[in-house]
Amino acid sequence: MGEAMIRVEETVERRLRGSGKQLQLADFWQIPPPSRPEILFQAIQASHAWHFMHNPAYHDALAARKIGAEISLQDLPRLLRPTSQTFKSYIDILGTPFPQDQPRRFMAWLLDHLSIHPMADRAPAERIGQLKDRYPSLEALLQDIERLYADLGIEILTSSGTSGRSTILARDQRAIERTVESFYLCFQRYFGMQLDHRAIFIMPRQTRIAMARMVGFSLRQVGVPPENTFFTIPFPAYPDQVRIRSGRAYRPGWQGWLERRVLNPFMNWMNEHTVSPQAVRRAVDLLLQAEADGAKILLFASWVHLHAVALTLRDQKRVLQLPPGSLLGTGGGFKEFYPSVPEQIRHDLAQSVRTTDGQPAPVRDVYGMAEANWAAMQCAAGNYHIPPWVYVAVLDADDRFQIAPDATGILAFFDPQGGGDLIPAFFKTADQMRLVNGSTAYDPALDCPCGEAGAYIAQGSIQRVDLLDEAGCAAQI
Amino acid sequence: MTVPPIEGFWLPRQVRDAILTPETEFEERTFVNGQPASVQAPGAVTARWPRLDSRQWAALLQSLERNCSLPPKGGDFWRRFQAAINHAGRRLADPSNPLHQRAIQTLPGYTGYSPAMIHLALRALDLFSLDQLPATFSFTPTWQAIEKWQPMSGLPGRARFFSQQPWREIYSRSPILSQRPIYERSAPPQVVIGYGAGNVPGAALLIALLAQAIALSAAMPVIIVRNSRHEPIFSPLVLQAMEEADPDLLCTTALLVWDFEDQALQRDLLSRADLVIAAASDETIVNLRRQFDAARRARPPAKHPLRFHAHGHKVSFSAIGAEMLTSAEGDPDSGKSSMEIAARLAALDSILWDQNGCLSARVHFVEERAGQDANAEDYAHCLLGQLHHLSAWLPLGGWPRRLLHERFDRYKNLERVGLTKVFSDYDDEFLVILDRRPLDAAAFRQQVNDCQGRVIVVRPVAHRMDIPRRYLRLIPKENLQSLSVAMGEPGQALGDEFLQFAAECGACGVTAIRTVGRGAFPQLAYSWDGLIPLDLMDERPPGYFCTIEFDYPYEQILTTYRLMERI
After folding, report:
1. B268, B285, B311 — which closes off a domain?
2. Of A334, A368, A402, which residue sits at a domain end?
3. pLDDT digits (tens, 9 = 90+) for B371-409
């Protein structure tokens, strides 16, 4: 366990007066919401001090904002780095969105963004020279980095990268364990997931996309046996493939020509005509089997795939009757011009997937991002609950906290407990939302109707705001 | 206290009395600090405009057409037009005048720009010189302008034509053809429909005044301009003041707000239009052109040429010549160095309208030369000082600081690996970056996009020709607009080297070259996005003009500097 985490946990433990036990994330639910911010602030202080000392990029970014190793409560907004650029900054530095072309410079960038213990031998920076001059793909490079830095337990994750500019970040084993713990605790608490669920994912088993990977890991942690976990997309989703299929960024030269003219149309055609229909058919078959077996299911997929399931069942004139406790989950995922909105998809699902008590199977969304080692899961009342070990606030347009029990702004989060030692998990997102009972403001009267106390994102309030509004006649070119 | 709505439209008094009735419905928009807000919000400013029904529109068009015989023409028009403009300018510039006060009370809240910015705009109306407008109508560019810069008779500066028909090159080579005029006389427009957009004050006014200039050589057309919902206040105030001075001048002009989606109305208006002037987003312009083409096909063959003047989204830049990078005294009156003067005025070009305007300078290209007193880094440092000074005088408007912070973080991150240097602080309300990295087209465009909301990138070049050759050519031609230059020595006229530089910039798509400090003050007599005032009246083959708006750059820079110091 890293020094930072030990210190963070000691700090928190001291606050859990009289508990006399090893700190667990789940303990935070026992702490009354008004007491959480102070505990978390102390954990943030400790975590900040560690990362400020050991993470060059973080140190310099904050020093430029005139922040030192010691912080006060007022400094919190200045600790936040934007999710939209922190782990995409390699593009600016390398001058290309293709790290495989400059593996050593990329690795230097990555190490620069990690908080690593000083090492006596085989120091991380010295191993950079062992990387090849070029790699045929991003996946090949990332695999080699993971091999080379196996002793650090580094695993590299990406965002979905559909913009053509992937977020690339690393987690160590400790962070992975914490993330998995974070996800499974929330699965249990907000989705009611238990050992007897059968988990069906319309997604590939092999992927670096952070959220998909963590959801899969977490169900294993819950104890869902491998034979009850199904991934219905039979192909891996490597970052290069995701990029080409998204059609937003292509390699230069002939490779780019091939990607644009051949691979992109082919992959999209294959996806539309073969992969997706097959994955949906397989999911439907598994659902029918679960219905026959009387097994509770968790079906986790993008909105588009969930809709495809509903439409397939409708075409087959089938209405699934699943045991109560079954659940449909999604982490978003919309095609740019998909004709149906989530409300329509929910409606269509309600017609096709029901529970034996006569109710439509609940459909729950998950709000998360690659940079976060946590996710906010939608409760029965429709709100998204922030795990209590994460300090959240919303920022106004000038990056100041809005301290009010009901406030709308850009979501900022601090995850000193679950964030791990490798990366300071203090970020401002590119999402605007209505946050209830966040920051230091707490009003019990605003507690979620589901009965859960603590911070939550109000249903239907999440919006992306990273696009610059055009105020005048100046062009975006 | 709720302030009564301000009028976001303008109709000639007599037309207004006849058309608007107590039953007329009005649409209202309320803003606080440039953001939509409720009427009850503190500091809320509400503007309103009538929603005319089809009967009212018909009556309006009839009234305006009937009035076409009233406005003066030619020299008489010009004399009265100037008098009316001067009257309006004096009223708006006078802090004790109610019109000035109304502008100051409403424009900052509605648009988000700081009161000081509005003050400056009201007091700097002198920089919108109209004196030269009549001369531009007597300028007859010939095909020689494809090959060389042509003097503009009666105006300082030069003009060059960039034809979209490559075969026209032969015109410039033939001694006879090269002397033929580019324009052919045609019937002047009788109905002008304009579209103004954005929150930079005065877009609709600019269109209305430009269309009015047709009266210099023809009958005044009917002019209907769609005002911007994001800034509907300034133009009606000016027109109101002009009407007080001379009601006949404006009796064919109307400024209203209507919906682009109102297909029937759009079809009706566009089918009447001989000339459409659209200053709007690129998407809106594409839609308008489509609507105009459809309306044109539906109407009987017109006797007049039908024209569509598009002014879409654009980007502008500044260029600082190596000769300005000197600490020697540049202005004997103030004792300021040439570099300070250049940096002050170039800073103004970037921060006026908070860099939201198409004329706002994004990147400052700085020519470095061995043996010069200073280099681009010194310039960036000097620019920083000027921005501190100007920001205290002209604070940033009500835009999110988040964007500045994100860009600060991004460029600081690059600074860490030695790729850029950030001169400003996290809490400054502007950002100054020195960037020497070679960039490909995508990265340069991204950088240009970053430069909004007072983000200035200083980009050194080894030679001024690198500006068009290495950078401007990376921008789509149709997106380039103006270049503000700080170049030249005292008493130095436009030399061959400068004209070659200007020609290469023009070939990249630059349509106006003016001196620093005048970026935000377009001159109606010169090229606006490649169109010159003759385009309002006459016909020419496809292509665009680039104009140089001065003969002696250094002297014009000094004049601008002294004027700005006075303001």
Report:
1. B311
2. A368
3. 888 999 999 999 999 999 999 999 999 888 999 999 999
Q: Which amino acid is at A24?
A: Q
Section B5-21 average pLDDT: 95
Dihedral angle, C-alpha A48, A50, A54, A56, nearest 10 °:
10
**Assigned domain for B160 exists:** no
Residue A361's contacts (CB-CB under 8 Å, 6 or more residues apart) are A320, A322, A326, A327, A328, A349, A350, A353, A354, A355
Number of domains in chain B: 2
Could you give the 3-state DSSP secondary structure of residue B64?
helix
Nearest-CB residue to B426 (from A66, A93, A473): A66
Q: For residue B260, which of B285, B223, B233, B224 has the smallest C-alpha distance?
A: B285
Does B398 reside within a domain?
A: yes
Q: Band of the pLDDT at B488, cuts 50, 70, 90?
A: very high
pTM of the full structure: 0.88
Domain residues for A229? Answer: 185-368
Asked whether residue A361 is domain-assigned, the answer is yes
Separation CA B84–CA B78 (nearest Å): 10
Same-domain status, B296 and B327: no
Check B445 against A93: CB less than 8 A apart. no
Which of A394, A396, A477 has the most B C-beta neighbours within 10 Å, making it the best mutation to test the interface with B? Answer: A477
Which range marks the domain in which residue B287 is found? 6-132+186-311
Tell me how crowded residue A351 is: count the other CB atoms within 10 A of its CB. Answer: 13
Are residues B295 and B347 located together in one domain of the fold? no
Phi, psi of A459, deg, nearest 5 = -55, 140
Tens digit of pLDDT for each residue in A272-281? 999 999 999 9
The model's pLDDT over A158-217, given as tens digits with 9 standing for 90+, comes to: 876 666 678 898 888 888 888 888 888 898 898 887 778 898 999 888 788 776 777 767
Euclidean distance between CA atoms A435 and A394, whole angstroms: 7
- With an 8 Å Cβ cutoff, is B416 touching chain A? yes
Give yes or no: residues A195 and A286 share one domain. Answer: yes
Residues B499 and B542 in one domain: yes
**∠ CA A66-A71-A74 to the nearest 5 degrees?**
85
Q: Which of B407, B435, B405 is nearest to B421 (CA)?
A: B435
User: CATH number, domain at B471?
Assistant: 3.40.309.10
A interface residues, B as partner, C-beta within 8 Å? 56-57, 60-61, 64-66, 78, 81-82, 84-85, 89, 92-93, 95, 112, 395, 397-399, 410, 468, 470-477
